[in-house]
Design brief:
single chain; 310 residues; alpha+beta; Jelly Rolls; Arc Repressor Mutant, subunit A; 2 domains; seven-stranded mixed sheet; four-stranded antiparallel sheet; 10 helices; 11 strands; 39% helix; elongated
Length: 310
């Protein structure tokens, strides 16, 4: 079985970084909305309040995890209102202490970013707020939050390596906890495929063999439905037809290989179904606005080099 979510996360170049480690006491607040990627707050101890423009304050308790998309304006605070004057911030190594002691609240801030030019996306398809925690009944996420808390409160040998691994795992576990209970409001985005077994089956065929000369007719035959049915369900689920999705996925795959490998243009073109570099280059320019070679140089300059896509 093709793991569609893992493939899309990898091909869209999702990468993680550990942000601020917050220890907070009384009378504190922190502006957290200035990161270009998605931001995750993991409350490992104590309580905090999440403030977003136009929304009621949301209380967060130990074990709660919230994910907000790129450039989402928000603040964390120790109270449901922002009228108190926060105490001074006191950096202590990698820890930012806010308010006045005792330091009863601990929050790990994690950042996830990706190639926002990729058509097939998970991060950019998420809503304005994903909030998961013990109430979602996902033991693996709860275990990871507790492990993060232990590593932060009692650093050991190779704590940095442990934290790096845990924050990579955290994103998958957030999605696992949230996806089954999410509202059915993600039609016409990539997440819509998860609600339609027919479209998911067709995408698995495309992802398993992207270089194959798929057509709407051949995909319909492979999934035992009519062309009209497959086209209609594709548009309802993800907002585009099978041919458009195939073309976009091939260009996303090509971009990932250019970004993450030293494969020749001939190899990249063949891997995504093009018989010549010239034809591939023309398609890539239409999709990304620059030649494959220039894209590879730009990706390296922006630090987008990551793991090799499968």
């Amino acid at each position: 079985m093709v793991d569609l979510v893992s493939q899309v996360l990898r091909v869209s170049g999702v990468r993680t970084s550990l942000g601020t480690l917050i220890e907070a006491g009384e009378d504190w607040e922190r502006d957290c909305g200035d990161h270009p990627g998605a931001t995750v707050h993991v409350v490992t101890a104590g309580r905090a309040w999440l403030h977003r423009p136009g929304c009621d304050p949301r209380e967060l308790a130990a074990g709660d995890v919230v994910l907000l998309p790129a450039n989402q304006e928000h603040r964390l605070a120790g109270a449901p209102d922002l009228r108190t004057r926060p105490g001074p911030a006191e950096p202590d190594g990698q820890v930012l202490r806010l308010g006045t002691p005792p330091w009863l609240t601990r929050i790990m801030v994690i950042h996830y970013d990706c190639d926002h030019d990729a058509h097939t996306q998970v991060l950019d398809a998420l809503p304005d707020l994903v909030h998961v925690g013990p109430r979602n009944g996902v033991p693996s996420l709860d275990d990871t939050v507790r492990m993060l808390g232990r590593e932060l409160s009692d650093p050991q040998i190779a704590t940095t390596a442990v934290l790096d691994s845990l924050i990579d795992i955290m994103l998958i576990q957030i999605l696992r906890a949230w996806l089954p209970s999410r509202p059915s409001t993600h039609e016409r985005s990539w997440l819509g495929v998860l609600d339609d077994s027919l479209v998911r089956a067709a995408l698995e065929l495309i992802h398993r063999d992207p270089a194959r000369p798929w057509t709407t007719e051949s995909l319909a035959q492979a999934t035992a439905v009519s062309r009209a049915t497959l086209s209609r369900r594709f548009v309802q689920a993800i907002g585009s037809g099978p041919a458009t999705y195939l073309a976009q996925w091939r260009m996303d795959l090509a971009a990932a290989r250019l970004r993450d490998t030293q494969d020749s243009l001939d190899a990249v073109a063949a891997a995504v179904g093009y018989g010549s570099v010239a034809a591939f280059s023309r398609a890539f320019v239409r999709a990304r606005g620059c030649s494959p070679g220039r894209y590879r140089v730009r990706a390296g300059a922006r630090g987008l080099i990551g793991s090799t896509p499968g």
